[in-house]
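Hello,

Following up on my earlier ticket. Below are the three sequence lines again, exactly as submitted.
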Amino acid sequence: MQDLLRRYGTLLTAVFVILTAFWLLALVVLPNFTMLESSFRPYLPVTEIGGPKDVYSFGNYLKFFANSTDTSFLGMTFQMPIHMKIFFLTVWYSAIVTLVTFLITYPLAYYLAKVVNPRTLPSLLLLILIPLWVSEALRAFAWYIILTLNGPLNAVLVGIGILDKPVRWQQGVVTPYDAIMIGLVYTYLFFMLFPIYNAIQSLDTNQIEAAEDLGSPWWRTHLRVILPHAKPGIASGCVMVFMLSAGSLLVPVQLGSPRSLWFTQTIQQWMLEAQDWNTGAAYSLLFLLLCIVFVFAVMRIFKVNLSDIAK
Amino acid sequence: MHKRRDILFHLYMVLFLLYLLLPLVIMGGAAFNDNKLPSVYPWKGWTDRWFIDLWNDERMWIAFRNTILVALAVAALAVPIGTAAAILINSISGKVRASLYGLMVAPILAPGAVIGISTLLFWNKFGKAVGSDFILFNPGLHLSVLGQVSYIAAFVMLLVLARLQSFDEGLEEAALDLGATHAQTMRRILLPHLYPAIFAGAAIAFFQSIENFNVTLFTRGTSDTLTVYVFSKVRSGITPTINALAVILILVTLVGTLTYEIVQRRRRAREAALEKASD
Amino acid sequence: MSAAIELDNVCCDFGSFRAVDHVNVTIKAGEFFSFLGPSGCGKTTILRMISGFTEPSEGVIRIGGKDMKGQRPNQRPTALIFQNLALFPLMPVWENISFGLEVRGVDKATRRAKADELLRLVDLPGAGDKMIAQLSGGQKQRVAIARALAVEPQVMLLDEPLSALDLKLRQHMRAELRAIQKRTGVTFIYITHDQGEALAMSDRVGVMSQGRLQQVADPRDIYNNPVNGFVASFVGENNILTGTVGQRSDGFATFQTKLGTFRARLGEKAGTGAVKLYVRPEHMRLSEAPAAENSVPVTVGDVSFEGNFIAVMTATDDGTQLVAELRNDGAATVPAPGTRLHMSFDAARASILPDETTAEG
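Thanks for your patience. The regenerated structure is below:
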C-alpha cells in the first residue's frame, strides 16, 4: 500500500482500490455469500417470504439425497439418490473427457511445438483455431447434425458395412453419455491443446537432444524430460477441460437424451423450470464445492500452484 | 533421421485437422440443403432459402444486437477493473497478495452456472433489501454483463499483470523526479507500456462475452443473445437457419483471421526488409 | 577408450545455403581438437553432424573407422556438451549425471555410485543431491561434463561450453577441461570462436571460414605460420600492407608497396592471386635510426599502456596506420606522441599471404 501511494499518489490509488473492491465485493464475494445464505432458505410463495416459515434449514440440501434409484456402476448395483447419481456421473464422464482430450492433444502439442516446420506453423495454428472462433453452441450443434439417426455418420458407417443399421448415438451405444462425451471432447479440446503446447514450446530443444544423445529412447525422453516440464501446462489443461465439461449446459442439452442428464441440467431445472432459486443455490453450491475440491486435488497431484493453472 | 516418426506425426496432424474441420463443413453444407431438417444427407437439392429465413428472423436480429451491446459493455467494464486490479496486486506482496490473487483468479475456474446464479440472487436480494423495484435488480442483460465481468476482468488482470512484470519501475521514478504529477506519469509512462495488454484484454473480453452462454442463461430474464438464441432454436424444432447462421459466422471468422494474418505477415516482411536495409 | 574421427569430403546444405563445404580432416584418437571460426562459419554444423543430429548432404563421417551414416545420436560413441549445457532442471545433479546409465537399465545403487565417482572426477564431491538451479555457472559446467562422461563416450563434443562464464572462471575451466581430457584420454572436439581458448587448450586447431576449413595445424603453427590472410587476421592482430610480389628466392620474396619495397617470407599458398603483407604488432620494432632492412619512418600517435605490453599507434608519411606492441619488461621506454621514429621488422617474421580466404586444398 505504501508503495502504491508513493508510485501513484492518493487519487489514483483510490481509483484502483475502488475498482478492485467493486469487482471483488459486488461481483464475486457478496454474490457467492448471498448464494450460500439463500441455499438454506425454504422455497415459499412471495407472500410468505420473511414470514414465520422463512427460517434456515437444510431442506434444500436434503433434496439432493432424496429419491433413491437403482444404480449400477462398474458392474456393482446399489441404491443411490437420483440427483447424487447424476452428480457423480457428471464427475465421472467429465474425468473421462479430460483424459481423452489429454491423450488426443499431447502428441499434437508436441508435434506443433517441436516437430513441425516453423514456417508452416502459423498456417496450421490458423486452421486449428477456426473451430474455436466458431461459437461453442455451434460446435456442439455440428455434432448434433453428424450424430442424428439419419445423419452422415450413420450413413457412412452403414454404407461401408461397419454397421447393419443406423445407431441412435444420442441414446448412447456404450454408455448413455457417448454423444455428450464426443461433443465435449470436440468443444473443449483447445483448452487442453494450448496450455500443453505452450509448456512444451518453452522447453529448450537442447534438453530433448541431450537426452537423445545420452541414449534415451523416445518414450523415456517424454517420460523423464518432456512430460515433467509440461506438467504445469497439463495441470492447467486438465482443470480447464474438466471444469468446462462438468459445467457445460449447451452440450448435454443438445447432444444428450432423457437418459443422460448432466448435473448442470438439474440446476437449470430448479432455477428456470421449477423457479426454486433457493434449491438452485444449494445445488450450485454443491457444484462449486466439487470444483474447489477438484482444483485443489490437481494442485496437489501435479504439485503446481494457482498461478500455473490460471493462464 | 526421424523420417518414420515424422510421417506418423504428419498423418496424425492431417487426421486431426479433418476431425476439427469436417464437422464445420457438414454443418455448413446443411445450410444449403433443401431439407426441413438440418442435414447434408439425404441431399434434396441446393437452396438459399435458409439464409433468407434467417435474414427475416427478427428475433435473431434482436439477439445479435443484444450480443454486441453486452460484449461492448463487458469490455468497457472489465478493462478498467482488470487493469486497476493488476496494478494494485503488482505493488503489494506477501500473504495479502497471494490471497487477493487467489480471489481474483477464482472466478475463471468457477462454473458459469454458479456465477450466473450467484449474480442473479445477489442483485435480486439487494433490490428487495432496499425495497426498490429499480430495473437493475431484476433479471436482465445488465445482470449478464455484471456476471460476465466478474470472471472476464480476471483475464484482463492476468494479461496486464504479465505486461507489468516487464515494466521498469525506474521509469516512473524518473518521470516523478522530472516533476511530472502522478496522473501525468500514469498517462505518459505506465499506460503506454500497458497498451498492448489492454487492447488484447479488450479483444478477449469482447469475444469471451460473445461466447458466453452459462452466465447469460441464468441472468438474462427474457432477453436473447445469439448463443441463447441458438440454444433455444436447437431445443424447439430446429431449422437449417441455424446452419445458415453458422456459415456466416465461419465466413466472418475466416475473413477476420486471414486479414489479421496477412497484415501480420506484411508487417513482419516490412520489418525484415528494414532490418536488411540497416545492415 | 577413444576413437579417431575422419571427415571425408563432408558437405552440408540448408536449402540453397551451403553451411559446410567439402571439409576433409582426420582427428586422431585421444586428441584435443578445436574448430575455430567466427559465428556462422559452419563449425557448429560440423559438431551436429558428428553427433548425429544433422546428416551430411555429401561425404562420409567415420568414427573409429566405422561409417556413421544413418546412425542416430544415441547409437554413436559420442557425447555432446551443449552450448547452454542443457542440464535437466527438474532432476537433481546425480540423476542428471546418471541419466545415460538410467536409459541403459543400470540399477539405482550403481548409478548413484557412478555419479558420485564422476562428481569427484570433476571436483564437485557431495553435490549429487543439489538441484541444477542451486549451482553456479562453473559448477553447472562440471556437471555437464560429468553427465557426458558417464556414458563412457569415445569422443566428447563440446559446443562453446565456456562462453557463458566470466573471464576468470573461463580461464580456470580451460585448464580444468584440458586436465580432464588428459586424465580420461577421450578424444575431445571443441568448438569455439575464441582464439585464446583454442590455442591454449588444443593439440591441433582447425580454422574455419564460410563453411571451409582454412588450415589445420598445431596452435604454434596456426599463429606463426598462417596460410592465408583470414587465418592471420582471425587469430591475432596484424599490420597489413598492400602491394605486389617482386623477386622470389628461397621461400622469400620482395614486396613493392607505396611505402617502399620490403622483403618477407612467401606463404605456401601465395600463388598468382591477390596477396598482402602481414606483420604481427609484437614483431614490430621502433628505433631512432633506420634499420638495415624493412624500415619505414613513422610519427608516433596514441600510446596505450595495456599492462603486460605497450601498444604504440603510428602513422607513416602517407597516412598508413601501423601498430607496434612493445613488451613491458619494466624498463621499456614509452615514446611520446609526435616523436619521429623508424619502424622495422624481420623478414622472417613477416608473411606474404593470399588475400582473405581461398578454397582449402
